[in-house]
Design a protein that fits this description.
The protein has one domain (about 5-35, about 45-140). With about 140 residues, the protein is mostly helical. The chain has 3 helices and no strands.
């Protein structure tokens, strides 16, 4: 399966999960409304509060979906880097002398360390972006 086909499959899966989550949320909201209407002692929810909550849920769903797509892209980069490293490591046998072997080893080590650094930075950035979006949405709902 090609990288593009794999990416398409993952994107479609994420879209389907997002649609299912949104449909599930709408169903739960409607069930709660119906249940609340059956109890005469319960006050009906205030429209403004319900609208803010619904907006928050919708925005958070979009944010999580965007984060999932970026995470997918990061994993794909990791996979490509791993394949490149594997190819390079298999070329060690082609070294003609110890000096060339040392150079290839050093290059592979540096590339591997750079890859680990980039991946770590990407994961921290994804986490920070997610937390920032969460704080932004919670602040927006509170006002």
């Amino acid at each position: 399966m090609s990288d593009q086909a794999t990416a398409t499959v993952f994107e479609e899966t994420f879209k389907n999960v997002q649609r299912a989550a949104e449909a599930n949320l709408k169903f739960q909201q409607e069930m709660f409304r119906q249940w609340a209407n059956m109890w005469p002692g319960l006050p009906t929810p205030q429209t403004i509060w319900v609208n803010k909550l619904r907006d928050f849920q919708h925005e958070w769903t979009k944010a999580v979906s965007a984060l999932a797509h970026r995470h997918h892209e990061t994993i794909e980069k990791q996979y490509r880097a791993a394949l490149e490293s594997l190819d390079e490591s298999l070329r060690f046998a082609e070294a003609k002398d110890p000096e060339e072997f040392r150079k290839r080893s050093e290059q592979l080590c540096r590339k591997t360390l750079d890859c680990v650094r980039e991946i770590s930075e990407a994961q921290v950035k994804e986490f920070q972006d997610g937390m920032n979006k969460w704080v932004e949405l919670v602040t927006k709902v509170g006002t």
